[in-house]
Fold these 2 entries.
Entry 1:
Amino acid sequence: MRHFLLIPTFLVFCLSVRAQRFVRFISTDGKEYYGDAILPTNTTDAAKSTHAKVIKGDILGDFQITKQTKEIISLLAPLPSERVRTVRCVGLNYVSHINETNQTIPQWPILFYKPWTSLNTPSDPIPVSEGYQTQGDFISKMDYETELVIVMKKKAFNISDDEALDHVLGYTVGHDVSHRGWQIDRGGLPQPQFSMGKGADGWAPWGPAIVSTKEIPDPQTLNIWTKVNGVMEQNSSTANMIFGVKHLVSFFSMGTTLLPEDVIFTGTPSGVNLGKTNPTWLTNGDVVEVGLENVGTCTNVIKYV
Ligand SMILES: *[C@@H]1O[C@H](CO)[C@@H](O)[C@H](O)[C@H]1NC(C)=O
Ligand SMILES: *[C@@H]1O[C@H](CO)[C@@H](O)[C@H](O)[C@H]1NC(C)=O
Ligand SMILES: *[C@@H]1O[C@H](CO)[C@@H](O)[C@H](O)[C@H]1NC(C)=O
Ligand SMILES: *[C@@H]1O[C@H](CO)[C@@H](O)[C@H](O)[C@H]1NC(C)=O
Ligand SMILES: *[C@@H]1O[C@H](CO)[C@@H](O)[C@H](O)[C@H]1NC(C)=O
């Protein structure tokens, strides 16, 4: 009798520990689910997944990966925007990007925030409202920035670098949409206006999945890129980050509590328009793909509204 009871418990345990790619999606019944994405053979891009194992419970607390498989009709952002209380972003975290923009290497991480209304799905359009469009002698200067994004799992206050990863759920890729017109040209010189230039609605696509720290034990080894209309514009490695994931989490926890579901965009490598002699600023209809190795891609079209 006893061993019959043990079998289901053992199965649940086995399935839970294998959670790798947390996704949130709409299935064929029109309902929303959390799931562990099933990768097609040949790719680790969760955006290409057509099915997921349904997750019951809270991905930040107690959950189970069930044996039920659902078809993915559309991938949502990995967490609902309103659950993400703080979107932290790091500026100037790759030497190549600092060089291309003629700035100096910071001694401490440069932090700014985006409102959570800026979060977007891995595939919806990036809306550009009238005040951000080119008009008269004001040139919009829209730019792309691919970034590794950290998703917090547990509260963190005053923690060390060594404790940092215990507080992290996983990693995803994010697009820090940037508008140099408002960020720099209409910034209060000598200070740029990061928030006006980067915080508009939908200007932070993220996803397609949160890949667990078990699947990515070392986040500083991943290829990271951007393609604009299919052409590679950024192509680097997270190995080139000045301040790595562990240090960013510990540094930001100094005096400020990081909460579960908070996300941290960790800065972009070189290749952005801002660093180019002849930039081709993003405009209506341009398709931007940001990608991170072993995580996947977000592909969003710029849409004037
Ligand atoms: C895997 O990708 C390669 C190159 O893109 C392709 O030739 C091959 O057919 C793919 N295999 C499968 C099983 O999809
Ligand atoms: C630094 O930027 C300049 C252009 O501003 C470029 O010519 C040079 O190759 C860059 N150096 C590095 C190490 O990226
Ligand atoms: C950086 O400096 C170079 C050389 O002076 C200049 O051509 C370029 O426009 C500058 N780039 C930025 C983003 O200021
Ligand atoms: C922060 O952590 C350090 C090292 O563990 C400890 O000495 C210090 O008292 C802590 N500070 C606060 C405000 O908790
Ligand atoms: C991008 O970088 C990776 C890793 O360094 C390299 O293998 C690949 O060839 C690069 N792709 C392009 C299009 O430059």
Entry 2:
Amino acid sequence: MDAGIDVAGVKRSFGAVHAVREVTFTAAPGRVTGLVGPNGSGKTTLMLMLASLLQADAGRMSLGGVDPVADPAGVRRLLGWMPDSLGAWPSLTAREVLVATAQLYDLSRDAARARADELLALVDLSALAASPARVLSRGQKQRLALARALVHDPRVLLLDEPASGLDPQARIALRVLLRRLAAEGRTILISSHVLSELEEVVDDAVFLVDGRTVGGDRVAAATRRVRAWRVRVPADVARPMDAVRLDVAAALGRAGDEVGVDRRDVLVPFTDEAGAVAGLRALIGAGLPVVEFAPAVGDLEHAFLDLGAEPAGPASPEAVAPPASSPKPPRPTSPPEPAPPSSDVPPGQTPPANRPDDGSVA
Ligand SMILES: Nc1ncnc2c1ncn2[C@@H]1O[C@H](COP(=O)(O)OP(=O)(O)OP(=O)(O)O)[C@@H](O)[C@H]1O
Ligand SMILES: [Mg+2]
């Protein structure tokens, strides 16, 4: 692929720590690709290698057709990099940070000033333009880091945890901005372990577990597995939650212990969406006043929790589309593996997102 990100067989260790064991994926232009993995799974290490800031031990990478190892200056010209913390120049003002960065990318002083003001407005920091970067709050620093990544109008964006520390309004603004940047044809790779955050912005997802990308078939199998749905039927003094739970079970023809309760909601496992549709019809048909009916966790989270319970498999040659945000089914990209048994019903019994270490990772 010419304009996107293409990564094959990339590895990087720090002594005995295998931070990135085997990473293979592509991220397409015009799309937002989520890099999803628990703490320590290698997301930042991978992004540093893509940004030409860390050497890979093995493998091949290309961003917009440029190899960051062979041509780091070329990659930096086309790449916007937002690290997981703002870093440098705490005594410069927000505007000065952007002007200085723009000048490093060869903009004239006047053009750099104009660009800085444009970007400060874009990330809603104009009022703090003259404040030193060190006094900015965490969320304000994140916004400045995003503005800095956009200074030279890059075709490829690498954003490491861009939403961390942002308030809800700033998160929405970030989401809208990322969708717009992708619609303009840019390639965007965004890391996070906060899946609800990614759910609404990504087109494709690359799952990293213990430094390895997870095969598309395994992700597809994980997303297909039985999942819990949240059913809200108002309880009151006459019908407490436990009675409502039994009403729901009876309406669905299930045994009482197949249906759980999580605070105000009843949790019901369904194998697929068709089953959920039939279940909703049965509940309404039984006269239950259903006010809410939805999957208990988002699609990315569902896949991720399920993957977290399995051993890491072979590398995926391509990103897979998460089922929620893409009309297309996930693109299967490696030989199918047998599906392990269901593991997230009811959600109160979901496996932990972090797999236990295999002993070789500190
Ligand atoms: N410079 C380093 N020296 C030694 N070990 C490192 C170094 N950088 C990263 N590691 C280790 O490599 C592994 C992957 O770290 P990395 O920062 O890439 O994870 P991450 O997926 O970004 O995690 P998080 O979600 O917490 O940001 C971790 O076990 C980490 O301790
Ligand atoms: Mg990280």
